[in-house]
Write a structure and sequence with these properties.
Layout: E1 4-6, E2 9-11, E3 30-31, H1 41-44, E4 56-61, E5 66-69, E6 75-80, E7 96-100, E8 109-112, E9 119-124, E10 133-138, E11 153-159, E12 185-191, E13 194-199, E14 204-208, E15 219-221, H2 223-228, E16 232-239, E17 249-256, E18 272-278, E19 284-292, E20 301-306, E21 312-316
Parallel strand pairs: 3-19, 5-11
Antiparallel strand pairs: 1-2, 4-6, 6-9, 7-10, 8-9, 10-11, 12-13, 13-14, 14-15, 16-17, 17-18, 18-19, 20-21
């Protein structure tokens, strides 16, 4: 490890020994070396130029004509996208919307898709009215990445007379916290009255948890970004069993960033890593495992966790969607 100088004081970070993590021979990193047969990234991610079909909705939840729908329900669509995923920029309030059937009142809602661009989700911003019919619409204004318009689709639903299912004992309330604005958090972990949070770009936050459950002013560091030499997608955070409120030891899983669209900042393969962050200001970072694979989209090196045996476990996601290369996922094959 290179010596570091801060404010005129030379600091040589000590690397503690964590139970369950094997010592690294000759100070080398564990690495998954790319196979010689691996397809180069540029060749594995072609632009979706060949038109093979028309994208369309294949299933909607709640089902078309459903009744007694809970007033806080979202509407989700499975879609067929034979030419590549949905162009997320075409999901707008004029192309996908929910209206009150009786008078056409537009319901304010949030729209989203999956990392693979193979779903449409509409979540009303507020609970719907009870015993009321609503019409959900997907127009031809929604397009796939090849620019092909969706087949128009509509369905109706009627909400429950009671509003919310009385048999549900517990519900979560979404509370707006002003000091979390402006970031998209991709990983969180709470321990010792702190909430640790990582972002889609690699920033790391440490919030003190107040007695009422709200969050205090965070310590914000760019340790991960500086270490990697650019933005990183923090996909998991956990805290070492040896961590204390005054000696923070974080383990993170991370990978190269992606625009999550084929041909638009696709995820570079072999950029997954497991790293440990220490120091009162979370300013020291060491990589322990590097060169893990990833998909073009959002199948990545995922959340990690210490097991009861004090060993560290993490999930490594698929390089594709269904086990075989396809255009929506950049034609990247599965590989070790």
């Amino acid at each position: 490890m290179k010596d570091q100088t801060r404010r005129g004081r030379k600091v040589v970070p000590a690397r503690p020994s964590w139970p369950g993590v094997e010592a690294l021979e000759s100070r080398q990193l564990y690495a998954a070396a790319p196979s010689a047969a691996a397809v180069p990234l540029a060749a594995a991610v072609p632009q979706a130029t060949q038109i093979v079909g028309t994208p369309r909705v294949t299933k909607v939840t709640p089902l078309a004509g459903a009744t007694s729908v809970q007033v806080d329900s979202a509407i989700a669509c499975d879609v067929s996208v034979p030419n590549g995923g949905i162009d997320a920029t075409t999901l707008t309030s004029t192309t996908v919307f929910l209206k009150r059937t009786a008078d056409g009142l537009l319901i304010p809602a949030v729209l989203n898709t999956s990392g693979g661009g193979d779903a449409i989700v509409l979540k009303p911003e507020n609970p719907l009215e009870t015993s009321t019919s609503y019409t959900f619409t997907v127009t031809s204004g929604v397009k796939d990445l090849a620019g092909v318009a969706f087949t128009p689709f509509t369905s109706t639903l009627t909400t429950s007379a009671t509003g919310i299912d009385p048999n549900v004992k517990y519900r979560f309330e979404q509370v707006d916290l002003p000091n979390t604005h402006g970031q998209q958090f991709s990983a969180v972990y709470a321990r010792d009255n702190y909430l640790y949070a990582g972002t889609l770009t690699g920033m790391l936050y440490r919030f003190p948890i107040n007695a009422d459950g709200t969050l205090g002013d965070p310590l914000i560091v760019d340790t991960v970004i500086k270490h990697a030499g650019g933005p990183q997608f923090i996909t998991g955070i956990t805290v070492s069993p040896q961590s204390t409120p005054t000696n923070h030891i974080l383990w993170i899983s991370r990978t190269g960033t992606s625009g999550l669209q084929v041909g638009d900042a696709e995820g570079a393969d072999w950029t997954g890593a497991i790293s440990v962050i220490t120091g009162a200001k979370m300013d020291t970072m060491v990589d322990e495992v590097v060169h893990l694979p990833r998909s073009v989209r959002d199948h990545l090196t995922n959340q990690l966790s210490f097991g009861p045996d004090k060993k560290l476990y993490f999930g490594q996601a698929s390089n594709s969607a269904m086990g075989a290369p396809d255009v929506t996922w950049g034609n990247r094959a599965e590989h070790l």
